[in-house]
Amino acid sequence: MSIRHGLLALLERGSRYGYQLRAEFEESTGGTWPLNVGQVYTTLGRLERDGLVRGMPESDGGQRPYEITDAGRAELALWFATPLSQADRPRDELAIKLALAITTPGVDVRAVVQTQRSATMRSLQEFTKLKQAGGELPWLLVLEAMIFQCEAESRWLDHCESALVRHRPTVTPVTQHIDERVTADERA
Amino acid sequence: MSIRHGLLALLERGSRYGYQLRAEFEESTGGTWPLNVGQVYTTLGRLERDGLVRGMPESDGGQRPYEITDAGRAELALWFATPLSQADRPRDELAIKLALAITTPGVDVRAVVQTQRSATMRSLQEFTKLKQAGGELPWLLVLEAMIFQCEAESRWLDHCESALVRHRPTVTPVTQHIDERVTADERA
DNA sequence: CGACACATGTAACACGTTACATGATTTG
DNA sequence: CAAATCATGTAACGTGTTACATGTGTCG
């Protein structure tokens, strides 16, 4: 639903055509989430089908601008007025992954956690660097949203690791045979 | 991709049938993300089509168990070994919403922020209550992931609000006419 | 001219989601 | 018996995503 409403919001500023919409959408979010042009057109088609936008006749340079309708404006207002509930959000794949890793035989959960943390920290560094480069307020806020998320994820991964250590003791390479005895016990 | 791999992980524990898979999936995540049974079957169909699981003949009580194949095991191992990159994640709808709210005429951004924060805090309280009730380790970690996320979101919303105040001064009901002058200036 | 950016669009597919149809089994 | 739960499955739709086809304009 984010692209749908995103395009609607851009059209609220005034009439735009597909290519413009893609450029402005990517600009708002600083190119963090690249948007395939094709998707703009398919989404515009669906928005028109639903009566939220109106496609104008093709103008001079082969450009076909769209404008938002009253229904579209209402839908947009509703979007802004309604908070995102937990149910609206996609499942947290990382949480699912770790939760299942714990109960899946033959998975080194600590390795999963550590690999993820490396990746998360790399992202965090990239974002921090981008932040130094500066930019418009919207793009800056998006960046900071992702920075906050990375930090939360990193803290959560730390938390998971220590919870795991508490739950099933750490294994060093030397005591590999002990590891196998322990997991065998747990299966019973 | 999370359900696909989730089912694969559950099948790694042993042969299961559809209804069981749904129950175990919801149990792992504590019912936070309810999973429609129908989706289990469609997903199992796709997994079988891709050779990652094998559907067994229908047994006694009308149950049709599935088992994971070697290809499925490889896919699962890959899933666990590969960290989630930023590109894999869905667009952050809230971030997009706020970024666009800022540049959309006629939107009270502060109201959007405050409405969202109320909702986020409500979620946070629910999760905290659930945490007190306790549960298995996987479910506990999932809960804490969501708690951490809510906290990050709440902090980010605070940050947005203060960034907005810095950028365009707060308006009180009494000085409504001043607000209109200001926004008119900004449009120019 | 040839390459590249601009611009529109379609086809095909993946995944998630809901609603529905259908039966077997259990239980009050 | 009737209602609820267990269990399987299909049909239909929505969004997101990619790949492709097509044409125009511009610039070295």
Notes on the protein architecture:
Two copies of one chain form a homodimer. By secondary structure, chain A is mainly alpha-helical. Chain A has two domains: about 90 residues, Arc Repressor Mutant, subunit A, CATH 1.10.10; about 100 residues. Helix content of chain A is about 65%, strand content about 5%. Chain A has eight helices and three strands; from the N terminus they run H-E-H-H-E-E-H-H-H-H-H. In chain A, strands 1-3-2 form a three-stranded antiparallel beta sheet. Chain A starts with a helix and ends with a helix. The C terminus of chain A is likely disordered. Chains A and B meet through helix 1, helix 4, helix 5, helix 6 and helix 7 of A and helix 1, helix 4, helix 5, helix 6 and helix 7 of B. The first copy, chain A, binds a DNA duplex (28 and 28 nucleotides) through helix 3.
Key attributes of the depicted protein:
homodimer, mainly alpha, three-stranded antiparallel β-sheet, elongated, disordered C terminus, DNA-binding
Structure summary:
2 copies of one chain form a homodimer. Chain A has helices at 2-12, 18-28, 37-49, 70-81, 93-103, 109-133, 137-167, 176-187; strands at 16-17, 53-55, 65-68.
Averaging pLDDT over every residue of chain A, what do you get?
A: 87
Class computed from helices, strands and strand pairing of chain A: mainly alpha
Q: Kindly report the greatest chain-chain contact and the residue count on each side.
A: A-B, 70 and 70 residues
Shape of chain A: elongated
Q: Work out the helicity level of chain A.
A: 55-70%
Integer-rounded radius of gyration of chain A: 24 Å
Span of the ends, CA to CA of chain A: 46 Å
Major sheet of chain A: size, sense and barrel closure? 3 strands, antiparallel
Summed up, the helix count of chain A is 8
Count of extended strands of chain A: 3
pLDDT below 50 for ≥5 consecutive residues: which ranges of chain A?
172-188
H/E series of chain A: HEHHEEHHHHH
The number of domains of chain A: 2
Work out the oligomeric state of the chains in this entry. Answer: homodimer
In which order are the strands of the major sheet of chain A placed? 1-3-2
